[in-house]
């Protein structure tokens, strides 16, 4: 069953430009120059029940704008959206009962009242029965270890404590679909691990569908089999994370640290080998080939230049995504 169905979705914003000088400022008072900019540019996407999808892209790629349209906060310029069988914007009241949203940068808890009062208010808003609330939230509170925080006002919580409470608040009505926009921003490793474990648990237990945007690609590696990569409002990859890794950078990264500076010209030229300088004395070789090729390359380099250190690195998702954006690697 498809939980999210999006077709040719587009969102345009007008960005205004100022004319130069005083005369220009005066003219701006009466008529402004503006350009139309597509923050989301004809994207199509479906997400099935129970999937955990990583939605990633550079700053300004259009991730938040997509989530805002999927949650009914923004209306699309064109295209169609069906989420949980509804039009998020038109069937707003009914729709919000079926989703949970966490925006890492914004709070949905009331600042001055105790956390549990916020939970109670949300319980009323979503008309959750006492029985359902006690059963479900008991488990959420225990797993996220927020029991001791419940009677504290939100303003007295640390960021990590608040984020765990935010997540719990988004789940008061146990929604089948969760949108998480940067849910682990600024959190320490232990809290991140706790949140990831919790998300895995609810996904297994309730088949909760999760759409996650984050700049922390280790979150994506830990949680998402599928990733959607966005660039300037367009989807440039939609598929399995491990295929992205194979697809984007076949092979290995070998890091050569030399005793002194080494020019590009004294490094071997081989087919399927790319060089990238890391700093004055360190070069990274990306090689697409088997172990034999790797060992031949290492011995070749070592014979030509005095070496301080050699490392064969697994290429992280972060590295892959950086290369995709920097080099404009075509993926689709
Ligand atoms: N209300 C708005 N008015 C005008 N332009 C906007 C508005 N909201 C977003 N934009 C523009 O749309 C583009 C996409 O923004 P969006 O916030 O969706 O990016 P993002 O991928 O979530 O980025 P980040 O990782 O920085 O949060 C940006 O160029 C942004 O400046």
Short description:
With 332 residues, this protein is an alpha/beta fold. It has helices at residues 21-30, 63-70, 92-96, 115-125, 130-143, 159-170, 189-206, 217-223, 241-248, 291-304, 317-327; strands at residues 2-17, 33-48, 52-57, 78-83, 99-103, 177-181, 209-213, 226-231, 234-240, 252-258, 273-279, 282-287, 307-313.
Outline the structure in words.
By secondary structure, the chain is α/β, with parallel strands linked by helices. The chain folds into two domains: 49-245, P-loop containing nucleotide triphosphate hydrolases (Rossmann fold); 250-314, 2-Layer Sandwich (Alpha-Beta Plaits), CATH 3.30.70. Helix content is 36%, strand content 30%. It is built from eleven helices and 13 strands. It has helices spanning 21-30, 63-70, 92-96, 115-125, 130-143, 159-170, 189-206, 217-223, 241-248, 291-304, 317-327; strands at 2-17, 33-48, 52-57, 78-83, 99-103, 177-181, 209-213, 226-231, 234-240, 252-258, 273-279, 282-287, 307-313. The chain is globular, with a radius of gyration of 24 Å. The chain starts with a strand and ends in a 5-residue tail after the last helix. The mean pLDDT is 88. InterPro entries: AAA+_ATPase, ABC_transporter-like_ATP-bd, ABC_transporter_ATP-binding, P-loop_NTPase.
């Amino acid at each position: 069953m498809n939980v999210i169905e999006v077709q040719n979705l587009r969102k345009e914003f007008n960005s205004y430009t100022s004319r130069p000088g005083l005369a220009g400022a005066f003219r701006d008072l009466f008529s402004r120059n503006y350009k139309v900019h597509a923050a989301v540019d004809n994207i199509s996407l479906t997400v099935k029940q129970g999937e955990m999808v990583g939605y990633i892209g550079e700053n300004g790629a259009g991730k938040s704008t997509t989530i805002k349209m999927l949650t009914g906060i923004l209306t699309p310029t064109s295209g169609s959206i069906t989420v949980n069988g509804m039009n998020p914007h038109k069937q707003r009241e009914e729709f919000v009962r079926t989703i949970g949203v966490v925006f890492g940068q914004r709070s949905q808890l009331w600042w001055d009242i105790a956390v549990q009062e916020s939970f109670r208010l949300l319980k009323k808003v979503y008309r959750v029965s006492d029985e359902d609330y006690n059963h479900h939230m008991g488990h959420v509170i225990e797993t996220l270890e927020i029991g001791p925080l419940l009677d504290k006002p939100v303003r007295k919580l640390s960021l990590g404590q608040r984020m765990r409470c935010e997540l719990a608040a988004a789940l008061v009505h146990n929604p089948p679909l969760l949108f998480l926009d940067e849910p682990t921003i600024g959190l320490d490793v232990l809290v991140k691990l706790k949140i990831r474990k919790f998300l895995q648990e609810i996904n297994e237990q309730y088949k909760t569908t999760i759409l996650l945007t984050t700049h922390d690609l280790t979150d994506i590696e830990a949680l998402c089999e599928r990733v959607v990569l966005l660039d300037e409002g367009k989807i440039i990859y939609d598929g399995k994370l491990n295929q992205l890794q194979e697809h984007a950078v076949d092979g290995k990264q070998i890091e050569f640290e030399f005793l002194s500076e080494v020019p590009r010209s004294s490094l071997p030229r081989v087919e399927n080998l790319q060089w990238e300088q890391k700093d004055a004395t360190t070069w990274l070789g990306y090689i697409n080939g088997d172990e034999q090729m790797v060992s031949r390359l290492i011995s070749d380099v070592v014979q030509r230049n005095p070496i301080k250190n050699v490392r064969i690195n697994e290429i992280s998702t972060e590295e892959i995504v950086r290369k995709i954006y920097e080099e404009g690697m075509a993926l689709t």
